[in-house]
Design goal:
By secondary structure, the chain is mainly alpha-helical. Among the domains are: about 255-390, de novo design (two linked rop proteins); about 670-880, no CATH class. Helix content is about 65%, strand content about 5%. It has 38 helices and eleven strands. The longest helix has about 35 residues, at about 55-90. About 50% of the residues are buried.
Length: about 900
């Protein structure tokens, strides 16, 4: 139906010639894919070579639009099948009810379940990472198309209703076709904030109380004695407007403005809920009893708000709930983001806790006086939202690179007359000097004496202090140090927080304040050292004292992206697994809880893949009911644009965290651990032999992928590099690194090195083969590792990658690198099949296997168009033909967009 609708629109808008060109390309690609040994001549490439520039753009957009539509169709079908299961079986698979029922049937004791529920905390964190290529306008049209499909699914549509929806669908596809898909300019930081708030408002705010209610009901059903035992466990976070690592456009003003936007949206949403409650709670005191507590509260409000009291008595003479709600509306309306008005304004909620107390008063009164159903639904939902969202909506994390802090501390100490120079000291000397400076106090010099970078850092920390005073500490309290590699990196932040007043020293010479300092371990060396660093850090009273405010829970972030880029897929995953186990052991030894913050991306090369499988593969001791993770780029749209999909995603995440935390997982056998260590070592050598040691590899990468064009895409306010030159892969962010290999279909970050490592172990002998197969069958971590590598390898396509390799000018280099990649590609497939015991990759997930197979011939023309356009663009750039450069750059950008839609993956 959608294909026919698109065909109608293409015919109307661009003519039958375009429709015919698309159809010929489609059929040619399908026929080529069906042949085991396709002819040497690639018919798709030849057809693309014959297209003129306007036709190239239109054909690209036609295939891209088709992928947008079928992605919506697949999403709709997922939800339809889910409902069908629920109707047929009476329960939704992997729902919270299903999960708690399974836990109870396993005989997990109530005390153990309660312990996990008491510390349960799930926190998705939205980020503005540059991997969402769709414009907000395009997303809006796709959402309306999805709504049309949802309505078309209704069983009893009249002919008139059907005709109206068919026309609405054509209208939206037409507007989608007529809309520019590529942003003309980079989004501003506050534009990114607004984009993230769209998902929080339209989805997060809606589904949060539903999930709370469902978990509460599921617990009460499976464990009746635990009725009401689930607190506020789901919270949303954000990096948008706070993540300044390598992004000079995120300033302290942007951070403050982001929090103001979030606050305004929260207050607006609460005001809407209060209006609905005024409408709903019309109970009369002449018909129901009302508690003395509520009446007393109304009297106190009336004293503070006499004008509102008179209006409430006149409008709602016998309706105490409405009277109370009218005061609540007034106090909420008086909350302001203007610090000048906060001191002189009329009665207002000074903090979200005051609003929460009023909502709880309504809830308890209704529950006790015949209004149980309204108390446990409408009012309880509002109560959950205020608990979770406060007046800040999402906790804004701040992130900065350790090198920035080191430079700032060195500058501050130098201007304060400290000798010797801080940057000349070793690690232990730095720790001693930092400890003394924190305890002794250090006066800041005049701001004008500092560099711009240090002055901005000081202003940021002072902004956080002011924001906490105005909005509450919940709004912004987590400070993440990227590229953490030493204890001094944490002490540097503590010193900076001390001199700016964000933390203070109490009478016992312990630090106090609402600051949560979170080291981020992301490179091979720092992951290996993570547990040692945390062990030494937790020995320090200065750091340990700040954990008291957070229930003695230490948050640590681990990065999946840079670790993969640094050491390859298999090695990075093993290092992460070991680091998590070791961190859990260290925290337990110090009697401190652990909250792991997973810095994942959408692609498997950046920690992506099926979330539930990833959670079940975590070391159980590293979960303990706590799960915080980034939601990045196109993943945010995929998971949160549709409230039903978001609900499904989060109920599975919550259920998986509960299951994994309560799992009696067997300790991996010692020979399994030894085998993994050997695999990781072999994989690291194979990966670095290509990426680091092979002469000319960087040249091959730059020429055989659209990395430069991806870096130029206006997808984010953040640059693609953390400084450094084009030839420095170390300075390249992991997102464009993975994005580039995905576009060229080599997909290298998701599998390279796996084949060499497995092949070496399989060659040891039949006993080692059986060990690897047993690891796959019985160890969730290893099963996930192999399953995700199988997906990455199945998505990779060497026929397509060869087209991109032909862009490399040095023929000898091209052959050398491509042959190495292709050989590892073959080794990986063969070894994955042996370990998994399958006859073909993804036989165990036929829906995914078939989806890749169905999409391939439709994305092939886009690859051919991109390769031709890259060749033409680079020739035009070399020849200084600026008009041609802009023309071909536009076609490349459209092809990048289309391939991303077809593969459903960027970075």
């Amino acid at each position: 139906m959608l294909g026919n609708a698109l065909g109608t629109v293409l015919d109307e808008q661009a003519g039958s010639e375009l429709l015919q060109a698309v159809e010929v390309l489609r059929r040619t690609a399908i026929n080529r894919r069906r042949r085991v040994d396709p002819p040497r001549r690639n018919g798709v490439v030849e057809l693309v070579e014959d297209l003129d520039d306007p036709a190239l753009t239109n054909v690209t957009r036609a295939f891209t639009t088709y992928f947008h539509l079928i992605n919506i169709a697949e999403e709709t079908e997922r939800l339809r099948r889910l409902r069908q299961h629920e109707v047929h079986d009476g329960i939704r698979p992997q729902s919270l009810s299903d999960t708690l029922s399974r836990i109870a049937k396993r005989g997990v004791p109530v005390e153990r379940v309660k312990a996990v529920l008491d510390q349960l905390r799930i926190q998705p964190v939205l980020t503005a990472h540059p991997s969402e290529v769709r414009r907000r306008s395009v997303i809006s049209h796709l959402i309306r198309i999805r709504e049309c499909l949802t309505q078309l699914k209704r069983v009893a549509l009249t002919p008139a209703e059907r005709g109206f929806l068919d026309e609405a669908l054509l209208r939206e596809i037409t507007v989608l076709w007529q809309t520019d898909e590529i942003r003309p300019t980079r989004p501003t930081p506050l534009g990114e904030v607004d984009h993230g708030l769209y998902y929080l408002k339209s989805t997060g705010y809606t589904i949060l109380p539903v999930l709370h209610r469902e978990l509460q009901d599921a617990v009460a059903s499976a464990y009746p004695g635990l009725s009401g035992a689930t607190g506020a466990f789901l919270h949303f976070g954000s990096w948008i407007g706070g993540d300044r690592d390598g992004n000079p456009f995120i300033t302290h003003e942007v951070t403050e403005d982001a929090l103001l936007l979030q606050r305004d949206l929260a207050l607006e949403a609460y005001a809407g809920e209060l209006r609905e409650l005024v409408d709903a709670l019309s109970q009369s005191a002449r018909r129901v009893a009302v508690s003395e507590a509520l009446l007393s509260s109304i009297e106190q409000d009336a004293l503070r708000l006499p004008a509102e009291a008179e209006a409430a008595r006149r409008q709602f003479p016998f309706e105490p709930y409405r009277q109370k709600l009218s005061f609540m509306q007034a106090k909420l309306a008086n909350v302001t983001s203007d610090p000048a008005k906060e001191q002189a304004g009329p009665a207002a909620y000074a903090a979200p806790g005051e609003l929460l107390a009023d909502v709880r008063l309504l809830h308890d009164d209704l529950f006790a006086n015949g209004g149980r159903r309204q108390a446990t639904t409408q009012v309880a939902d509002f109560m959950r939202r205020v608990e979770a969202f406060g007046f800040h909506l999402a906790a804004l994390d701040v992130r900065q690179n350790s090198a920035v802090h080191t430079a700032a501390v060195g500058e501050i100490m130098r201007l304060a007359g400290s000798t010797p120079r801080y940057d000349e000291l070793g690690e232990l000397e730095r720790r001693s000097l930092l400890n003394d400076a924190i305890l002794g106090g250090l006066e800041l010099a005049d701001r004008a004496e500092y560099s711009d970078e240090t002055r901005e850092l000081i202003q940021l920390l002072q902004t956080i202090r002011a924001v906490q005073a105005r909005f509450g500490p919940e709004a912004c309290h987590t400070y993440i140090i990227s590229d953490s590699a030493a204890v001094s990196h944490v002490l540097e932040v503590l010193l900076l927080a001390r001199v700016t007043g964000l933390v203070q020293l109490d009478g016992r010479r312990r630090l106090t304040g609402a600051l949560r300092v979170v080291p981020l371990f992301e490179r091979v060396e720092s992951l290996e050292a993570a547990s040692r660093i945390m062990d030494e850090l937790l020995e320090l009273d200065l750091h340990r004292s700040l954990l008291t405010r957070w229930g003695d829970v230490q948050e640590v972030m681990v990065g999946y992206s840079d670790s993969n880029k640094d050491g390859g897929y298999l090695t990075a995953n093993w290092l992460l697994y070991q680091a998590k186990r070791a961190l859990a052991e260290v925290c337990a030894a110090h009697d401190v809880g652990l909250m792991l913050f997973h810095g994942r991306g959408g692609a498997i090369g950046r920690g992506g893949g099926p979330t539930i499988r990833a959670i079940m593969a975590e070391p159980p001791e590293a979960l303990a009911g706590r799960f915080k993770t980034t939601e990045q780029g196109e993943v945010i749209h995929t998971r949160y644009a549709n409230p039903e999909i978001a609900h499904r995603h989060l109920e599975q995440v919550i259920g998986a965290v509960l299951l994994a935390s309560l799992e009696d997982a067997a300790e991996p056998a010692s020979d399994w651990l030894d085998c993994m260590t050997k695999l990781a070592g072999d994989a690291l050598r194979a990966y670095r032999a290509l990426v680091v040691d092979m002469p000319g590899f960087i040249e091959y990468f730059l020429q055989s992928t659209p990395i430069e064009e991806i870096s130029d895409l206006p997808t984010s306010s953040r640059p693609a590099r953390r400084g450094g030159s084009e030839a420095d892969i170390g300075s390249l962010r992991a997102i464009p690194w993975v994005f580039s290999w995905t576009q060229s279909r080599a997909n290298l970050p998701g599998w390279y090195g796996v084949g060499s490592a497995l092949e070496a172990q399989l060659a040891v002998g039949p006993d080692r083969v059986r060990v690897l197969q047993k690891m796959y069958q019985r160890w969730p971590f290893f099963h996930s590792l192999i399953a995700n590598a199988s997906i990455s390898r199945a998505v990779a396509d060497m026929r397509t990658a060869a087209l991109y390799a032909d862009l490399v000018e040095n023929r000898a280099l091209r052959e050398q690198v491509f042959e190495a990649i292709e050989a590892e590609y073959r080794r990986t497939q063969a070894s994955l099949l042996v370990v998994s015991g399958q006859s073909a990759l993804l036989n165990d997930v036929p829906v995914l296997r078939d989806s890749i197979g169905l999409r391939n011939p439709y994305v092939d023309p886009l690859h051919a168009i991109q390769v031709r356009s890259l060749r033409e663009l680079r020739a035009a750039r070399a020849g200084g033909r600026e008009a041609d450069v802009e023309r071909w750059r536009s076609i490349v950008a459209h092809a990048i967009n289309g391939i991303a839609a077809g593969m459903q993956s960027t970075g």
